[in-house]
Amino acid sequence: MKKLILFLLLVGSGSLLAQRTITDTITSQKLNEDREIKIGLPPSYDKNKSQKYPLLILFDGDFLFDAFQGALSYGYYWDDLPEVIIVGISQNKNNERETDCTVDETTGLPSEKGADFFEFIGMELIPSIQKNFRAAPFRIAAGLDTTAGFLNCYLYKDQPIFNAFISMSPELPTGMEEQIPERLAAVQQTTFYYHCTADGDMKKMRTRIQAMDAEIKKINNPKLNYVYEEFKGASHYSLVLHAIPSALYQIFSVYQPISTAEFQEKIAVLPSGYVKYLTDKYDMLEKVLGLKLQIRINDFKAIEAAILKNKAYPEFDQLSQLARKNYPKSMLADYHLAQLYEKTGDLKRAIKSYQTAFQKEEIGDLTKDMMLERADALKGAAKAKAEEPEEEVPATDAPAETPTEEKKSE
């Protein structure tokens, strides 16, 4: 892989653009040939040297690569989708896809060249990418019709090498509509499975796809995240442009910033545990997708709003600790402490916390002017409270003499 070595040298020198696509060849002993691959690296790949990225393997990379890269680039821009490493496998220069996806007519399992290609993916391609690039353990496979059906074969393994499957209008090998539901029912790791068809799809394929969907919907497996779609007014080929963003947003739903719907339907309705919801969200990102991310400022603001809405003011202490861990140089942690003291009536400590926040770096919509204004407002409130006249206690008439005094007077 001489081109790859040259590429890595160029990356080290910082001479390439932030977002790159390279074409390379990998020599395969399993296939006994060189196979062309296209690699798309994330925009932040050179900046975040410690960051690992989910790996997206595209069967039919010749025509799916640009479509997936475009959808992902749009998602990156809005921070709705994470950056991923894309690897597209060339299978259409000499119609290799037909022999690559050879399966036994009786068993539906990879056979002949298909068996070699099956092993090429798991034993050569993925290890090569992992060796040369910072790929996270989370892997996605995607394909269309013939390749979509073939990639399902990886579910026959007890421990599939893929965590997510995007199977667009799959041409299902023998018995797959019964076997894949069985395998999905048995998966032990979190698995995302997306497949689709369209009303303009090939009738024979569509019937079997619908039959498989009916069986999968019977499954009750908490480890399975399943989505099936039928697109109206789409053909066998145009459904791809409908399916790609839908599948990506399914798989990476946990990555997305807290939306208005998530806030209203999942967070604001909680009786407590708002900070825990936030930490669990980012723990899930690391556990499932292999992404260790700094908590977004807007997500801090969403939890702040939930605490205020439900008057769960003690949780500001936890939120402050989390903010100090994520943004130690910013005013965010002291701002949350100030809110805790202000809402619980400890104005003196609230003023001090706002003044401390003033000395830290601004972040998001939090500014030094805001911290001073809040501190001054509380000083005024504290002064006014101190100047309030004490409420007079009404005097009570005491008896002229007590019984004892009466005795003495006698």
Computed structural class: alpha/beta
Q: Give the SSE order as H and E letters.
A: HEEEHEHHEHEHEHEHHHHHHHHH
- Cα-atom radius of gyration: 31 Å
Number of strands: 8
What ranges have pLDDT less than 50 throughout 5 or more consecutive residues? Answer: 1-18, 398-410
Largest sheet entry: 8 strands, mixed
Structure commentary:
There is one protein chain. The protein has 410 residues and is α/β, with parallel strands linked by helices. Helix content is 48%, strand content 16%. It has 16 helices and 8 strands. The protein has an 8-stranded mixed sheet with strand order 1-2-4-3-5-6-7-8, sandwiched between helices. Helix 5 links the parallel strand 5 and strand 6.
What is the gist of this entry?
This protein has 410 residues and is α/β, with parallel strands linked by helices.
Produce the secondary structure layout.
Elements: H1 2-13, E1 20-28, E2 33-41, E3 53-58, H2 61-77, E4 85-89, H3 96-100, H4 113-132, E5 135-144, H5 146-151, E6 164-168, H6 176-186, E7 191-200, H7 203-216, E8 224-235, H8 239-251, H9 260-267, H10 274-289, H11 297-309, H12 315-326, H13 332-343, H14 347-358, H15 368-387, H16 403-409
Parallel strand pairs: 3-4, 3-5, 5-6, 6-7, 7-8
Antiparallel strand pairs: 1-2, 2-4
